[in-house]
Design goal:
Layout: E1 3-8, H1 14-23, E2 27-30, H2 32-40, E3 46-47, H3 48-52, H4 67-74, H5 80-89, E4 96-100, H6 104-109, H7 115-120, H8 125-135, E5 141-143, H9 149-159, H10 164-192, E6 205-211, E7 221-226, E8 238-241, H11 247-260, E9 267-272, E10 275-281, H12 285-295, E11 303-307, H13 313-319, E12 324-329, H14 334-340, E13 347-350, E14 362-367, E15 370-375, E16 386-387, H15 395-408, E17 416-419, E18 424-428, H16 434-445, E19 453-456, H17 464-472, E20 476-479, H18 486-495, E21 499-502
Parallel strand pairs: 1-2, 1-4, 2-3, 4-5, 11-12, 12-13, 19-20, 20-21
Antiparallel strand pairs: 6-7, 8-13, 9-10, 9-11, 14-15, 16-21, 17-18, 17-19
Length: 510
């Protein structure tokens, strides 16, 4: 008679599974709450201590950590010496383990959980048992996911045992599961000790969904979700219309979200290939839309629109006039949905907490042979600026400068943003030479550049950019400062009666 040791926290489907095993002639061994449930359901169950000849001790901290359990799991069925040893010691063979672990993840996510609650939900016996069974997958079946019950029963009904390929598949799931579980614990202790960059790092993500392809059709891809607070992100969004989001849709939408979260007043962000095509803020969201759209009426075609206010009928009618891939918003009015859902190719994404900003997460970049990890660029501190020009900015200029600098934080370096009336009118991004970025921004601003302001993500190394900006009619500049030629740059600013503000903060984005 084959034996199955069943001890699960998640009891979904376990009664039906154990009952089916019993009908197939299996002996059931169990512990604690699982044994009570199975016995109450009329299933004959052996206690673990009937096998170990040792009671549970230390409030259940020790129950399956025993040679009679691990010997029964780990002995090699084809090894003569192993067989002789377990027979000599009276160890019973255990041919299947069904186990899932204490809910450590749910416990750390619960705001009411104290440190002692969290510690007591670190499973010890369970991981040891399922790792032992997975190590010996050639002879032992191990199940940690209730979704696999039907697969195992189907094979047992047909073959009296599971297939080797199935046991290896189940073993793979075990080591993924325990690795994830241990990473949660490791990260908890790193946070407890305030260690941002530990000696060894493991990262925790859960599969959200598979994607049709990556950046290009020949690249496979998937979307994984962090286990930390993810409200206000695409991980917790609700798609209410359109095809599934693609890799590029998600990447571009995330870029739009990051920009949007810089602004509190009604704001619209247009994004194409993860860079803004236009950003606009206003007293009303309708005004913000017009500003964002008019920055670049061509590049927004096939792009992303993100709004930090509800999409209403008026905005929906404007969006409906062009081809947009994705619209992100905290909500959509019924009239807006009636208009936008008539288009099959538009995706409408609802993100309830779209203005949430406080995320404790890292920025991660993959490089050949490793990864780079840094804190998120959350710093702005624009209330601590230094006015270095002779002319001081008026209130309107200062508002536009701060708006432009927030916008410049999210474009690829070297980058500059020209703005007027809290609207981007020209964006120069991703250039190896800052002068080229300035030239592009001026060119894209066309006849609107006069009396505008400009923000730069890094300092101006030479006066040549200032000469170009003065000639174009830009009246105020905001930049980090810090160049060895700052004095020359400021001299050129004063020569043209312009404003220059230093922030002391650089915002490179590579």
């Amino acid at each position: 008679m084959k034996s199955a040791l069943i001890s699960v926290y998640d009891k979904e489907g376990i009664v039906e599974f154990a009952s089916s095993l019993k009908k197939l002639g299996w002996k059931i061994i169990s512990t604690g709450g699982t044994k009570k449930l199975l016995s109450k359901s009329g299933i004959d169950v052996l206690e673990v201590e009937d096998i170990t000849k040792f009671p549970e001790i230390l409030d259940g901290r020790v129950k399956t950590l025993n040679p009679y359990i691990h010997g029964g799991l780990l002995f090699k069925r084809e090894n003569k010496e192993h067989i002789e040893t377990i027979e000599e010691m009276g160890i019973q063979s255990i041919d299947m383990v069904v186990n899932n672990l204490y809910p450590f993840e749910e416990t750390i996510k619960n705001a009411d959980s104290g440190h002692e609650d969290i510690i007591e939900n670190i499973d010890i016996g369970g991981p040891s048992m399922i790792r032992a069974a997975a190590k010996n997958y050639k002879d032992v079946t191990v199940i940690v996911d209730p979704k696999d019950y039907s697969l195992v029963l189907e094979e047992l009904n047909n073959n009296d045992d599971t297939n080797l390929s199935t046991r290896r598949y189940l073993a793979r799931k075990v080591f993924n599961y325990t690795s994830y579980y241990d990473t949660l614990i490791s990260n908890y202790f790193n946070e407890l000790e305030k260690v941002k960059f530990p000696e060894n790092i493991t990262l925790c993500y859960k599969s959200r969904k598979s994607l049709r392809y990556g950046e290009n059709p020949h690249q496979n891809a998937a979307f994984y979700e962090e286990i930390k607070e993810t409200n206000g992100t695409l991980s917790k969004s609700k798609q209410i219309h359109g095809k599934e989001l693609s890799f590029n849709n998600i990447n571009d939408s995330n870029g739009a979200l990051k920009i949007l979260k810089e602004f509190d007043e009604p704001t619209i962000v247009g994004v194409k290939h993860a860079n803004p095509s236009g950003i606009g803020s206003g007293e009303k969201i309708e005004d913000a839309y017009v500003k964002a759209y008019e920055c670049d009426t061509k590049s927004i075609f096939g792009g992303i629109i993100a709004s930090n206010r509800e999409i209403n009928k008026e905005i929906a009618e404007k969006i409906n006039q062009i081809f947009i891939e994705v619209v992100l918003a905290p909500s959509f009015s019924n009239e807006a949905l009636d208009i936008l859902t008539k288009k099959k190719n538009i995706r409408l994404i609802e993100i309830k907490d779209i203005m949430k900003k406080d995320y404790n997460e890292f920025d991660i970049k993959k490089v050949l042979g490793g990864i780079l990890i840094q804190e998120k660029d959350n710093k702005l501190l624009l209330d601590d600026i230094q006015i270095v020009s002779k002319r001081k900015p008026n209130e309107e200029e200062l508002e536009d400068l701060l708006f432009a600098f927030k916008s410049a934080k999210h474009i690829n370096s070297n980058g500059v943003v020209i703005a007027k009336n809290k609207a981007t009118i020209g964006i120069g991004l991703g250039e190896v030479n800052r002068v080229w970025a300035v030239e592009n921004a001026i060119d894209r601003s066309q006849n609107k550049v006069s009396e505008s302001v400009i923000a730069s993500d890094g300092f101006f190394p030479f006066r040549d950019s200032i000469e170009l900006l003065a000639k174009a009619g830009v009246k105020a500049i905001i930049q980090p400062g810090g160049s060895i030629r700052d004095e020359e740059v400021i001299e050129e600013v004063d020569k043209n009666n312009m404003v220059m503000v230093f922030t002391g903060i650089r915002h490179f984005k590579h």
